[in-house]
Design brief:
Stationary-phase Survival Protein Sure Homolog, Chain: A, nine-stranded mixed sheet, about 280 residues, single chain, alpha/beta, two-stranded antiparallel sheet
């Protein structure tokens, strides 16, 4: 088997310590290329840049290795790789992360880390999204010193040969989340389903200037349902969570219900209303 070409990207920005930890863990498993946003793009989801040109520049990571940085989004980064910005050789697998903070349950719909991996499978590549829980819940989420990436980074790296195997299901993203524990204390890995978040958002008026008002609506710590078998439950138990995800959002049961509604009868001129 030829040496695989591994693309590393993220949404926290090219200087994130999580990206560096992931890149270094992957190096024994293939040739690693890095293209990532030039600054933090957290919670941008599957946003893309369509109205402005994008800039790409060569940068050096903290270990002296070369990377590419762009003012685009995580999805833009994957598109860049597909279109040849890495020198014409497309990657064999996309690994996105390591995100500063977990991406569990409903949060995956907002995550730029997960979005980059989803873009990979949309384009036909196997993909892994990797996120880590802080080791200190009282610390600033963006403080890289509040994380121990070693356990989840090594686990994700060992997954790469698995997802590259011909028998691995196509168009499946593995969403990997690591607990905030050192490697020796991690309690294995579990295949999980996405859990459910409980968002405790509050509308708070910050200031008023004439007709213009300024609010905050996010920031309150979110909760979650403690369902057995969920990604939240795995992290609570100190295990790595691995959730397979795919792009098929079609609700087959919903299709059957709509068929029974005879939607074709709704097509036609608007009825006249008396009076």
């Amino acid at each position: 088997m030829t040496t695989p070409h591994i693309l590393v990207t993220n949404d926290d920005g090219v200087t994130s310590p999580g990206l560096l930890a992931l890149k270094q863990a992957l190096e024994p498993y293939g040739r690693v290329s890095v293209i990532a946003p030039d600054s933090n793009r957290s919670a941008i989801g599957r946003g893309i840049t369509i109205h402005n040109p994008l800039h790409v520049e060569e940068v050096r990571l903290a270990d002296g290795s070369e990377a590419l940085a762009t003012d685009g989004t995580p999805v833009d980064c994957v598109r860049f790789a597909m279109l040849g910005v890495l020198g014409g050789e497309p990657p064999d697998v996309i690994v996105s992360g390591i995100n500063l903070g977990v991406n569990l349950g409903d949060d995956v719909t907002y995550s730029g880390t997960v979005a980059a991996a989803l873009e990979g499978v949309l384009l036909g590549w196997p993909a892994i999204a990797v996120s880590a829980q802080t080791t200190d819940p009282t610390a600033d989420q963006w403080d890289g010193a509040a994380y121990d990436f070693r356990g989840v980074a090594e686990f994700a790296a060992r997954l790469v040969p698995k997802v590259l195997h011909p028998d691995f299901p196509r168009r499946v993203v593995l969403n990997v989340n690591g607990p905030g524990l050192p490697p020796g204390r991690i309690r294995g890995a579990r295949v999980t389903r996405l859990g459910r978040r409980v968002y405790n958002d509050e509308l708070t008026l910050i200031a008023t200037d004439g007709n213009r008002r300024r609010f905050t609506i996010y920031g309150t710590l979110a909760g979650y349902h403690t369902d057995e078998g969920s990604d939240f439950a795995a992290i609570d138990d100190g295990a790595i969570s691995v959730t397979p995800m795919h792009f098929d959002l079609t609700d087959i049961g919903g299709m059957d219900h709509l068929e029974r509604l005879s939607l074709a009868d709704l097509v036609g001129p608007t009825p006249e209303v008396d009076g």
